[in-house]
Protein: NADH dehydrogenase [ubiquinone] 1 beta subcomplex subunit 10
Amino acid sequence: MPEDRDWEAYKVPPTRTPVSERTTSVPNPVNYFQTAFNYVLDAPVTLVREWIEKWQSKNKFYYYHQKFRRVPDLSECLEGDYLCYYEAEAQWRRDRMVDQQIVEIVQERLAACKQREGPNQFQNCAKEMELLAQVTKAYQDRYGDLGYHGNARTCLMKQKHRMMEERKAQEEQQS
Structure:
């Protein structure tokens, strides 16, 4: 590296950036508007938000772990007890959603196993296939043929009819 550097090629930047001088004595209205906005709108909202966050950090509530108590089945409700009917219907809907999620999870496990195993999927994923067959059969037995607008009453009637058919088949088999 040469000793005599070319100082004109690499100029050193100025040590201070010059400040632009104000040419008018009239204050900028944007500054007043910004200050008013900060004190009138932003400060109270920020104060309330911080207070809510502080309160919520003490009382943590997890929505995804909400546990409902089990309510009586529709068959256990007294006649004319509409509150019991409503609770049984809500319980049935929750149970149906849980059963749907179980079927979806088992399907996802089977799909992952098939993806992982490739050509050996029939040998190595037999357990998952059997589990899926059991889960879908149970779901179909309970909720099949109800349609989108199925409810707890029609599901109960379907189960009652299925039990009566099974009982008739047993009696015919015994005689």
Remarks:
- The longest helix spans residues 82-117.
